[in-house]
Write a structure and sequence with these properties.
Number of strands: 14
Strand content: 35-45%
Largest sheet: 8 strands, antiparallel
Structural class: mainly beta
Helix content: under 10%
Radius of gyration: 16 Å
Low-confidence stretches: none
Bound molecules: zinc ion
Order of helices and strands: EEEEEEEHEEHEHEEEE
Number of helices: 3
Oligomer: single chain
Strand order of the largest sheet: 9-8-14-13-12-11-4-10
């Protein structure tokens, strides 16, 4: 795939030669805050259903309320949810899920690889108890790209390995970068989880990178 960075945008071209932007023009960091007061973003919300690969509990890695004023730039008129298995994510990259704007999310299995052991339920729950909320105001566009131990919505990612835009499993086009979630910020493991979206197909992808 040919990627081109022009004035703070990352573009590709589809088969019809139409330009397709692969990142958003706005970047918000996640900061510690009061989740009872601000529900625009949730990360690693535990679910009741289980991973058919390892048996561990699944998590909604990222839940965004596109109707919140701060997240209007995403152009998602409803809820975006990305669901995967914390135990499998380092091996299963990328993991995919489908979302509906009313908050529904269905993970797509099988994974290409999986974790050998399920994560304990209490560890999955503990990840969900993190204190992170969306910041009140935006950060510089490259904030997430400049500083590794931060989690950001929109903007540019910090790629530990190479630039990686996952092809959509439905339409085959490169997916659009939505969020970088720092595992280190959560004391989980090294590296980051990258969340991408195909807005047309309503598919989310999550993949892991580390040094
Ligand atoms: Zn699993
Ligand atoms: Zn698609």
């Amino acid at each position: 795939m040919d990627l081109k960075i022009v004035s703070k945008k990352c573009w590709t071209f589809d088969r019809a030669g139409k330009r397709r932007q692969l990142n958003f023009d706005t970047c918000y960091p996640l900061v510690k805050g009061d989740r009872a007061q601000d529900g625009a973003v949730r990360i690693f919300r535990p679910r009741r259903d289980r991973c058919p690969e390892c048996g561990g509990r699944l998590s909604d890695f990222l839940v965004l309320d596109g109707r919140d004023e701060r997240l209007r730039f995403l152009g998602i008129d409803g809820i975006f949810t990305a669901t995967a298995c914390l135990g499998c994510i380092p091996w299963a990259s990328p993991s995919y899920s489908r979302f509906t704007l009313d908050g529904g999310s269905t993970p797509i299995f099988p994974y290409e690889g999986s974790g050998e052991e399920a994560m304990e339920d209490q560890d999955v729950e503990q990840m969900g108890e993190n204190p992170y909320v969306l910041a009140d105001g935006p950060a510089p566009l490259f904030y997430g790209a400049d500083w590794d131990e931060t989690s950001t919505i929109g903007g540019f990612p910090f790629w530990i390995q190479d630039w990686e835009y996952t092809p959509c499993p439905d339409c085959g086009r490169p997916m659009k970068f939505v969020a970088k979630l720092s595992w280190e910020m959560l004391d989980f493991m090294e590296g980051n989880c990258y969340v991408e979206v195909c807005p047309e197909c309503r598919v989310a992808s999550m993949h892991h990178q580390q040094t």
